[in-house]
Amino acid sequence: MGIVANKPDPSRFNRHLPLPFELRLKDFEMAMQDVYDFFFDVNRALV
What we know:
By secondary structure, the chain is an all-alpha fold. The chain has a domain at 21-47. Helix content is 47%, strand content 0%. It has one helix spanning 25-46. The chain is elongated, with a radius of gyration of 14 Å. The relative contact order is 0.22.
């Protein structure tokens, strides 16, 4: 079994939350994807 890369589920974000500084939910999704990609790369290197 290989390592599986994760992806954030946009349906799980709270769409009713007011976001400051003109942020969008897509910004949070992209940030989460960056973290997932980083840990995927670290795990793949350790294997």
